[in-house]
Specification:
Structural class: alpha+beta
Mean pLDDT: 89
Shape: globular
Amino acid sequence: MQVRIFSSKSAVRFLVPLVLLPGLTGCFVSPGGESSSGGGHSGSRLRVALAFPPAENFSPYGADATLLSRLGVTEGLTALDANAAATPALARSWRREDDRTWRFTLREATFQDGTDVTPAAVAAALTHATKARPAPTALAGVTLSAEPDGDSGVRITTAEPDPVLPMRLAGPSLAILSPEAYGKEGERPGVPTPVGTATGPFEITKVNGGSATLDRYDDYWGGLAHASGVDARFVKDGTARANAVRTGDVDIAEAIPVAQAATLDRSTLKEADTTRTTSLQLNTRTGPFKDPALRAAARTAIDSSALVKGVFEGYADPGAGIFGPAVTWAESKRVKPAGRAKAARPDGASITLATYDNRPELPEVAQVVQQQLQKAGFTVKLEVREYSRLESDALAGKFDAFIGARNSLLDTGDPVGVLGSDYTCDGGYNLARLCDKKVDRAVAEAVRTDGTGERQGAAMAAEAAILGTDAVVPLAHQQIVAGVSTKVRGVLLDPYERALVGAGTRR
């Protein structure tokens, strides 16, 4: 496969389709949004309320990677369009040389520290990502090496054939940072800083606990941003985010609670489909749910339609699988799980169920699930924390059950990616702590499968193998609900939730 798009850095902008908010559909923007030629130099600053504070000091290798891309700070070699196809970003073209080797041609661009985006810098950034532990989710199950090739090329070789490598490189955790981000040898082992070292239209200049200040990066390759900067506040309370939109204290607020949606003026309420699924993850390695029969008992106790009606108030669909209706091809290819254990009587088995309150529906979901499990015979203790204080314990298996909301195509746009990172023995985000040979074989087979339709079919076969273990119980497939001032234009919402603010966002 070969993609070639030729341009002049100063005159031609690359159009990367993203799904925009209702009312903006039909317009398309570059990875950073449309440029501001003709009077955007003194644009107002944007005030943005985000639900999640940095959990890992803005490391691009973990959950904070999407914060960086949503604020227009970081970029990868590629981006994704509305159909999850790879499109140009820092790479203007690419071609597949053989089963395991791809060559990417870079565009002219600079890092926010003023240095050039060179093949050596890009190869070094990708090499650092391969050494991060735990591995970035976009690299789950994948081994790759990168090396410079001439004045503008980077050659990337994978240990096994990887037909979706261009999509993988669009993952927020594979953002390209300047050599300065990594410091001198051993200075920042595994913890690069994106402050002043990224390539996007906005540059982080200050982080202060619950807020971050970003200024416009004037030499952005995609053109000068309309807004002069972004003032981001991390507001975990959903009601507070909705109130901030209502009172005009912020211009954009993500993750508006469905309970608050009716209180906002309809003109400020924006909705969009998303590939995010809320699921119940059961700890398969320790505690009561090590027993497949008790996991089956938990699954049969759950009524997801009650959650959609009572908690999400219609802003979601009942859980059908790891992939929901926004993954348009999934339902027609879905495979029925086989070999499930027969449900046992819980007989008062005591479990700890955890979730986080950054997404305001989740504590309500957890309360309903707690009631449903108790009715089935479990004894359930509920624990709710802010996400940054919960993630490490969840990954370490300190809870018996965990309710979280996960965008199934966030990391790579490839359906196989989330299966490898979340449900295989070596997965870096394996909240269920699942290690099942049948699942690993199914995911490995999907990884090797080429051809779009064939790969989708293999992904659904792997989904069936995962669901057959009852390690995960899909609860609901969500919609994005955001609050946006009527004065704001160019806000970006895509199904993968990687974008929010770009060069074309303005008020």
